[in-house]
# Entry
Amino acid sequence: MELICSLSSGYARKVRILAHEFGLADQMTITVVAPRESSDYLWQFNPLGKVPTFRNGDVVLYDSQVIAEYLVETYRPEWMLSTGLDRWQSKTRLSMLNGLSDAASTLRKAITETPPNQAGVALQMGKIERTLQHIEATWDGLESEVSLATIALLSAYEWLLVRIPERDWTTIAPRVEQWYQTFKQRPSVEATPYPAP
Ligand SMILES: N[C@@H](CCC(=O)N[C@@H](CS)C(=O)NCC(=O)O)C(=O)O
# Structure
């Protein structure tokens, strides 16, 4: 199997961590591309030119949520549900976490515009702060959960820490920060670091 990705992508990180958790890392070839540059190799599999894109034989999958669900259903179906949630609530939590990554990447673009897009920064910052506070207040069992959802949270939260160091993210949701300090020690997380920006 092959994962076409960029190592700085939070969406791809989720899949890379899962591969390690499921003992698949040795079988998964990582092909690094720069998706915003011409990449005929990626485009032949994903006309949208987005990473991560996954291949396994004739199977071609994107986006990260579809790839992650495929790996979970195929290799660890008991991981489908987040603690104490039914199927639709679990799916909504995963969508929220993908939305957290979306807001983070839009925020970074707004910050790096010349001049910085202040309205855009405020809009995305609000989404991220509210989402982290929502997680802080409502995610029962976060501390003991190892799931697709906690891996998605790790990927999004650490992306904020590494890619947007201008903001101190650690004070917004102290419980999430405390959880992160423990969860980041998992071998699957340590084996898949984001490159330095
Ligand atoms: N919803 C998608 C988002 C993927 C995405 O936007 N990836 C970025 C890199 S982090 C990308 O490929 N950007 C290139 C582009 O949009 O052209 C997923 O979860 O996989």
Remarks:
- Helices lie at 10-21, 40-43, 64-75, 87-112, 118-138, 148-163, 174-183, 187-190.
- Residues 132 and 173 are 6 Å apart (CA to CA).
- The chain has a mean pLDDT of 96.
- Strands lie at 2-5, 29-32, 53-56, 59-61.
